[in-house]
Amino acid sequence: MMPWSSTLLTDLYELTMAHAYLQHGMEQPAVFEFFVRKLPARRQFLIAAGLEQVIEFLLQLRLTDEEVRWLESTGRFAPALLDYLRRLRFAGDVEAVPEGTIFFPHEPILRITAPLPVAQLVESRVMNLLNFQTMIASKAARSVLVAGGKPLIDFGLRRAHGAEAGLLAARASYLAGFAGTATVLAGMAYGIPLYGTMAHSFVQAHQDEAAAFAHFAESQPDNILLLIDTYDTEEAARKVVRLAPALRARGLSVKGVRLDSGDLGDHARKVRRILDDGGLTNAQILASGNLDEYRLKELVDSGAPIDSFAIGTAMTTSSDAPSLDCAYKLQAYAGRPCRKRSEGKATWPGAKQVYRHYDDAGQPAFDVVTTASDRQTGTRLLESVVKDGRRVAPAPSLDDIRRLVATQLTQLPARLRTLEQAPPYEVRIAPALQELAQALDQNEPALVTGSTQGDRG
């Protein structure tokens, strides 16, 4: 079992609260929702990602005998909790926006309805999965928007924050529009196309750079993509040109070269001329090396003759916005809507639905957040994905999610597709939801009927 699949990958307070809930008979249905309070700087939108991993986690929720025995050995927990954990299963409901949906602050993208101890116990891992993949997919989409259709490749595993992060970053960037990844396990696990070249160490291990190119070509006849900046970039390009006739005589062709350092735009222009003058007009140029969406935009806007880009650290760690101001909050318990009123962290109460409205051009115009029972015009975003612990429908393929993202990015208004700060997208809070919050704030017992339960329609 991978460590990240364990139900004990959680915060201690989830267990201590579950202990107290059980001790005091608090096992009625609870409604929790995941949402983001505000966007990171210079972000105009977020892409919901990680839902599939959340569903897998919930449907496989259980503790092994070994884990329960270990909890018992700590002396922290009563036998009643340990017995509960031995029988732990998720038999609740999940409503969520489809993975790949663009969303905005204050909009719930996932709602879990389950007995209070269960809905509480899953908090940490649910947040962990949604926060990370949403953060990475949203970062990756920014590069997709400025790449001008040129292929982008995930090269970020080696500097990812751990094994699972590297694997899930490959998934999140692919669904956001990247062409593929260098992470081999992502190819096996998710069917993501694999891309790769060689490292500088391969060239350094040879006494002669041209020999390194020849050896690699012999070993990888269908992927002759040569790294040419270990020593002198332009001279290496000339060596590739000189090697090409011998390769061609053996039925091999140079697929391209990779640039990984220096002024990538300048090197690309010089190398392109060398390759073209040498008859390698079909050889492509791949650029890598500390790229992010800003450097990428500069290169594309300058007309640098680069055919594809590999992006690593900045994307895999979302370096400029490495976390989201996200929350998983109790919205109702035992039929009673709940509202947090903490300064700067107040929540809207009850189970909610989001409706998206489009203008005449088919672009999103504004969203409305309301109670789950308040029917509105527009497109409903949250839909049932798990009912009574069972999937409502088969999981969409990663390519289906990818197509949804591509469509939604195309539909975005121009101001939301930029890298710089822009006027925010409008998210309206419906009167029904405002009235429910006001009633709670005034401690009125007569609350809006039906607003505390999830939308079963």
UniProtKB/TrEMBL annotation:
Post-translational modification (record): Transiently phosphorylated on a His residue during the reaction cycle. Phosphorylation strongly increases the affinity for substrates and increases the rate of nicotinate D-ribonucleotide production. Dephosphorylation regenerates the low-affinity form of the enzyme, leading to product release.
Signal peptide, first to last residue: none
Record's function text: Catalyzes the first step in the biosynthesis of NAD from nicotinic acid, the ATP-dependent synthesis of beta-nicotinate D-ribonucleotide from nicotinate and 5-phospho-D-ribose 1-phosphate.
Keyword Glycosyltransferase: yes
Assigned protein family: Belongs to the NAPRTase family.
Reactions performed catalytically: 5-phospho-alpha-D-ribose 1-diphosphate + nicotinate + ATP + H2O = nicotinate beta-D-ribonucleotide + ADP + phosphate + diphosphate
Protein name, entry field: Nicotinate phosphoribosyltransferase
Pathway the protein takes part in: Cofactor biosynthesis; NAD(+) biosynthesis; nicotinate D-ribonucleotide from nicotinate: step 1/1
Any Pfam family matching the protein: NAPRTase_N
SUPFAM superfamilies linked to this entry: Nicotinate/Quinolinate PRTase C-terminal domain-like, Nicotinate/Quinolinate PRTase N-terminal domain-like
GO BP annotations listed: NAD+ biosynthetic process via the salvage pathway
PANTHER family, sorted: NICOTINATE PHOSPHORIBOSYLTRANSFERASE (PTHR11098)
Top-level EC class: ligase
Gene Ontology molecular function, alphabetical: nicotinamide phosphoribosyltransferase activity; nicotinate phosphoribosyltransferase activity
Claim: Ligase is one of the keywords in the record: yes
Nicotinate phosphoribosyltransferase C-terminal domain sequence ranges: 379-436
Residue span(s) of domain Nicotinate phosphoribosyltransferase N-terminal: 8-131
Domain Nicotinate/nicotinamide phosphoribosyltransferase: from-to ranges: 152-332
InterPro entries: Aldolase_TIM, N/Namide_PRibTrfase, NAPRTase_C, NAPRTase_N, Nic_PRibTrfase-Fam, Nic_PRibTrfase_pncB, Nicotinate_pribotase-like_C
Keyword annotations from UniProtKB, A to Z: Glycosyltransferase, Ligase, Phosphoprotein, Pyridine nucleotide biosynthesis, Transferase
